[in-house]
Amino acid sequence: MTDTVHTSNPAGLNPAGLNPAVASSTASATELLADFAAGRRLPSEVVAESLARIAATEPEINAVTGILATDPDQVAAVAAADAYWRGHAGPGAAAPADRPLLGVPVVVKEKHAVAGHPVDQAVPATVQTPDVDHPVVARLRAAGAVLVARTANPEFCAATFTDSAAHGVTRNPWSPEFTPGGSSGGSGAALAAGYAPLATGSDIGGSTRIPATFCGVVGYKAPYGVVPGLHPSTMDWYRSDSAMARTVGDVLLMHNVIAGRHPADPNSVPLGPVTEPEDGWSVAGHRIIVSETLGDYPVDDTVVDNLRAAADALAARGAVIEHRNPDWTVAELMEVAMAHYGHTLAPGMEEVIESSGAEVSPYITQFIDHTLAAAARMPLYETMVRETRIHTELGRLLDGATALITPVTTADALPAEAPLVSVNSRGEHYWATHMAVPFNICNRNPALAVPTGVGPRGVPTGLQIVGDTYDQQAVFRVGFALEDAGTGVLQARGDVPDTTA
């Protein structure tokens, strides 16, 4: 496997000199909570370090669209967290049960509403100022997390890179000529650059898992309805809101905060928290399916090599590895998904653009044209029939297995800038480059993206762990095993790319 210790930025990103004291801002949320409980640190110190890291590396990375930590409510939240930990730190101390993230910094994806802050999804003509938080944001606040900054997304969150006319190009901290992915690319880049240990994401076609992969972090697409969203977008059975972090444990910690039934989302489901199984997180004796190509995706050699090395690491921990492919084709998967988006996502985007007079980038108009054309060829009822076949095939593949591991993207890296033309000479939309969409079609299946190494162009590679319907424990079982094996690039010690070299 590629060396997992990445100590320099190969593309030479060279922002203002970074204060060495900021290095502690790369600690995991779990480590920070332990430090608070032991009286070693205070939330105010950690938030100051997060802001210093942002100041030192923006706008070169261009992951941040606004600062939240200086808002009066967040200043007060930090002061309250300091006061609690000053009074409660000591042997046996822990965060209060009702505030498990007390004092931990989090960055928030631009699309997730923060009360009193404008929201436009990188399309300024559509701006609105919400009176209430998105349910995910509200739950993070209630858990004691500190909202540090907002992170960039592409226009309408409808791209797998992060580039917009309003905010410009967001770059990958590992190698800035390449993309951090999208649409949660600002969150992925912010985590990789050490701005905070936690970040929010969302996923309708890989928007959490693709940035997690390219940024060497962890991202979780929970099954449909497990994490509440906002209507009407939450009616789309392809989508979910997500936890992102630099470690599997932190993702699980954050996920258990944001998940669960919510009155604002009638589609949300009342599942309890994901807990450690009785036998621990061991994979010994568990059958794990490995699919390098998910049928016929053309995958770069490095991505495949790192996937196989991860499978070897699981085998070394007692897992039973079986290499199999589903009976899927890229053409079928993309035809179904693009028709779905043409029936559900694109008409609303088109209406908003027309009613607001918004000017959008070519990738948006091309996405709308491509998906509406696909929908014209395939009625909605037919997409459901064909989705059923795709679901059935995944069920067959997973029958008797704990999980499937497979790449998230076919490419080891992609350019940072938006493509001028979104469809290639074969008529394929560029989303066909990614292997995430099948598990939005099969959106009751959890999918956890974890790192596997670094590719030849200095950009991390990753895989997604897919479990059976609503079997969340299974994907975390495999995720913890891979992280313990050291297959990632950002382990619990909180390594980040060196953006000062």
UniProtKB/TrEMBL annotation:
Q: Which UniProt keywords apply?
A: Hydrolase
Please name the GO terms that the record assigns under molecular function.
amidase activity
Q: For this protein, what reaction is catalysed?
A: a monocarboxylic acid amide + H2O = a monocarboxylate + NH4(+)
The enzyme's first-digit EC class, named in words, is: hydrolase
The question of whether Amino-acid biosynthesis is a record keyword is answered with: no
Q: What is its EC number?
A: 3.5.1.4
Give start and end of each Amidase domain: 45-475
The superkingdom of the source organism is: Bacteria
Say if the entry is tagged with keyword Transport: no
Q: Which InterPro entries match?
A: Amidase (IPR000120), Amidase_dom (IPR023631), AS_sf (IPR036928)
Q: Which Pfam families match?
A: Amidase (PF01425)
Q: Which residues form a coiled coil?
A: none
**What protein family is recorded?**
Belongs to the amidase family.
Report the protein name in the record.
Answer: amidase
